[in-house]
Amino acid sequence: MIVIVCGLPGSGKSYFASLLAKRINATYLNSDRLRKKLFAQSQYKEKDKMKVYDEMLLQLRESLKETRNIVLDATFYKASIRKKFLDEIAGSSPTFLIEVKASQPLIKKRLSNPRAYSDADFGVYRKIRKQWQPISEKHLVLHSTDNNIEAMLLKALPYLRTGHDSRPG
């Protein structure tokens, strides 16, 4: 099973995705961690973002060989990026999309605090929000607050058990 967790910076997607990966015993691939490895200083320029997604795709290919559960964690803000990953996965494993959302005031608060891997600030959030392309594939939408992570996980787990994945077909 492959789970693609997407959402804007500060939405809570990485916290959710990391906990979900533990719950389903999955390999966890995080774009922020890859960005830190690829660039000495965090970059949010278009070509740099695409380099991070390309590296994530390479790591996905390697993980697919192991036939393990995989959780991919990134904004996946463009339909073309999501399609690239869905096309790569096609036929290999059930695939699920989960979009994590949060209120703008909460996102602003979260982005004002330092985080271990992400350097995205509210300016990066605004830029990516303007570029955000709605998800047309079947997906689960979860709303993050500061105290509902367990409820989010309890909503996601049955969705993943349904077997109704997001792959084109």
Describe the structure.
The chain has helices at 13-23, 31-38, 46-65, 79-89, 104-111, 122-131, 149-161; strands at 2-6, 26-30, 69-73, 95-101, 140-143. The protein is an alpha/beta fold and 169 residues long. A five-stranded parallel β-sheet has the order 2-3-1-4-5, with helices on both faces. Helix 1 packs across helix 7 (149-161) and helix 2 (31-38) crosses helix 3 (46-65). It is globular and about 40 Å long.
The fraction of residues assigned to DSSP E strands is 15-25%
Summarize the main sheet: 5 strands, parallel
Strand order of the largest sheet: 2-3-1-4-5
SSE sequence, one letter per element: EHEHHEHEHHEH
Shape: globular
How large is the radius of gyration?
A: 15 Å
Compact overview of the structure:
This protein is α/β, with parallel strands linked by helices. The protein is built from seven helices and five strands; from the N terminus they run βαβααβαβααβα.
Summary keywords:
48% helix, 7 helices, globular, 169 residues, alpha/beta
Write the layout of secondary structure elements.
Layout: E1 2-6, H1 13-23, E2 26-30, H2 31-38, H3 46-65, E3 69-73, H4 79-89, E4 95-101, H5 104-111, H6 122-131, E5 140-143, H7 149-161
Parallel strand pairs: 1-3, 1-4, 2-3, 4-5
Helix pairs in contact: 1-7, 2-3, 3-4
